[in-house]
């Protein structure tokens, strides 16, 4: 697959047409409750876009989508906290038909570049202990475990400086 077939763009949960597209993608990806739990343990099955937004998108965030041949195959959101000079990556999802091809890594690297341009020097991400594939990816990109809670959610941190 050549890079010319791949693009990353910003999409908004606040725009009606973008929301329609996001709902279609997310509903398809989260037809498996296990995937929904890995991405957002606080969400209940079946997936409902309104609950998704209420739990995670009422505060300012930026969402990126990754397209392959103009088909959305990936999603990643970031939230920047200027006071703590940190950013939080969340809701990284790659369509199951396209996993293990480096697309999650591309989205994370893109987000890191955007975050760096905003003079933010720390990024954190949460991952469920059971999601070893994602944890391995984050470790390979320089994210380190800093804590784990009772439910098995690991908080990871990367310093960009």
Automatic annotation (TrEMBL):
<dbReference type="GO" id="GO:0016747">
    <property type="term" value="F:acyltransferase activity, transferring groups other than amino-acyl groups"/>
</dbReference>
<dbReference type="Pfam" id="PF00583">
    <property type="entry name" value="Acetyltransf_1"/>
</dbReference>
<dbReference type="InterPro" id="IPR016181">
    <property type="entry name" value="Acyl_CoA_acyltransferase"/>
</dbReference>
<protein>
    <recommendedName>
        <fullName>N-acetyltransferase domain-containing protein</fullName>
    </recommendedName>
</protein>
<feature type="domain" description="N-acetyltransferase">
    <location>
        <begin position="9"/>
        <end position="161"/>
    </location>
</feature>
<dbReference type="InterPro" id="IPR000182">
    <property type="entry name" value="GNAT_dom"/>
</dbReference>
């Amino acid at each position: 697959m050549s890079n010319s077939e791949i693009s990353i763009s910003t999409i908004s949960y606040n725009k009606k047409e973008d929301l329609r597209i996001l709902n279609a993608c997310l509903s398809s990806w989260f037809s498996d409750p296990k995937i929904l739990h890995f991405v957002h343990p606080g969400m209940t099955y079946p997936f409902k876009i309104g609950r998704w937004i209420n739990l995670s998108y009422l505060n300012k965030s930026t969402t990126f989508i990754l397209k392959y041949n103009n088909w959305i195959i990936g999603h990643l959101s970031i939230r920047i906290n200027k006071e703590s000079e940190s950013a939080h990556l969340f809701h990284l999802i790659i369509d199951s038909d396209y996993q293990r091809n480096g697309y999650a890594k591309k989205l994370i690297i893109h987000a890191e570049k955007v975050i760096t341009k905003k003079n933010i020097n720390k990024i954190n991400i949460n991952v469920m202990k059971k999601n070893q594939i994602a944890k391995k990816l984050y470790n390979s990109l320089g994210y380190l475990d800093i804590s784990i809670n009772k439910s098995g959610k690991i908080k990871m941190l990367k310093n960009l400086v």
